[in-house]
Amino acid sequence: MIENLNPIPEEQANLYIVETMDVNNLPEIMKNVLSLAQTPAEKDMLLMSSLVACGSVMPNLYCRYGIAAKRYYPNLQLFIVGSAACGKGIANLALELVKPIHEKMPLIIPGDATYPAFYQTLAKQKGRGYIHESEGSVITDIWRSSTANYNTALRKAAEHEPISRARCREASIIPNPQLSMVLTGTFSQYRALVPSIENGYFSRLITLIVDEHQAFNSNYVQPSENSGDIIKAAAEQLYHLYESLLFTHPREFCLTPDQRTRLGHHLETAYPTLIRMLGEDFHSVVLRMAVHIERIAMILSALRGISPLTAQRDSAESLLCSDLRGISPLTAQRDSAESILCSDLRGISPLTAQRDSAESLLCSDTDYATAELIGNKLILHMAQAYQLVKGTEKIETPAIKPLDQKAILLSLLPAEFESKTLVAEAQSQGIPQSTVMRWCSQWIDRGTLCRLSYGHYKKIA
């Protein structure tokens, strides 16, 4: 049984995740990856970044949450907050896990991209993407010109809500974005993306606080000889899981009735203490942590399927299964009306259920308990981030200079354009029509533009 959060002060004294869990309960692939970390903080950063990276390459797998039974996919967004020299670089190993998949199927989206470039890439990849940046300043510097757009897009992607954009003469929409993200940086860089606790993105972005400095260790000068082999092997396993999910029908991941009851009871009994301490604004964080817990359980269960002969012997064990290379891709449908999961691994009894003509994957008690434990710790990290952001809410972020906005807007326009094109592009950047038409007159006066005819302009090199 997972320990309760009460008493809160005691729990807050230890925010470490991995050192409070039984690592043997993790899927084999995660245990192998975590063997590369040394300190408790490194293990936490590697655990969370790897879970996010793995979740980005699990297509056709989803769960339902809430009264409306809304679909959620295994996509998480994570920001690791820490000072310089705290060892955040270890999170970069998570990027290596998805690179082989990216080479076959474009997935990675550079953080060093303007919002239009980000949107265009995400749309080209049919709404699927993975952002990984180890230098928060890269993100905040390039995003500063369109922070509102990025914030809104990331918030919507976290809920798989449509992201729309009016650009020049065209309007486009990404109907079901499935975006995962790992960022690391300082608190000031974090706050540039999450300026306020009232911002809806705060509760959707998982925050991991790292409050320690990395001591010098001679082992870092001479890394382990097999570290590269471990990551390579894990990446290959993940690639096979990705393939198995890609070419099958959508599968629904389900908590058992007992697990769902336990999750609801947990929300009602453990987390309200934090809400009373921090205020009602923290309520949204608690509700979304329930979604995060279910997503983490879904990722763990999928990864469990690529750990041959290491399945838990719980009565409610659920796994993706097959006899291909000891990996567990989902089996083909037997007929149009019924499909089942099968396995030839000893001691595994896959459970099946029909819902919307899709196979259901039931969560094991082990994976649910692990996900709940991770959620218990993450909620405390979120509470610390909440207090930090709320304590500095009155500090204004650096203002955007109009000249910067003007230059960015002008660079996005074609060589020749019409007034409606200019207005549409400006509105997509959050610039009022009256302002942009005033800028247009200034560009003409300065010789940056010339008017070819009424409402028709041309850039002058």
Written description of the protein model:
- This protein has 461 residues and is an alpha/beta fold.
- It folds into 2 domains: 8-391, Rossmann fold (3-Layer(aba) Sandwich), CATH 3.40.50; 402-459, Arc Repressor Mutant, subunit A (Orthogonal Bundle).
- It is built from 18 helices and 14 strands.
- The strands form 4 sheets. Strands 2-1-9-11-10 form a 5-stranded mixed β-sheet, covered by helices on one side. A 4-stranded parallel β-sheet has the order 4-7-3-8, with helices on both faces. A 3-stranded antiparallel β-sheet has the order 12-14-13.
- A hairpin with a 2-residue loop joins β10 and β11.
Show the helix and strand layout:
Blueprint: H1 8-12, H2 28-34, H3 40-55, E1 61-65, E2 70-72, E3 77-82, H4 92-104, H5 115-124, E4 128-133, H6 136-143, H7 147-158, E5 163-167, E6 170-174, E7 178-185, H8 187-193, H9 201-204, E8 206-210, H10 218-221, H11 227-246, E9 251-254, H12 257-269, H13 272-278, H14 283-304, E10 354-355, E11 358-362, H15 365-391, H16 402-412, E12 416-418, H17 419-428, H18 433-445, E13 449-453, E14 456-459
Parallel strand pairs: 1-9, 3-7, 3-8, 4-7, 9-11
Antiparallel strand pairs: 1-2, 5-6, 10-11, 12-14, 13-14
Helix pairs in contact: 2-11, 3-4, 4-11, 6-8, 14-15
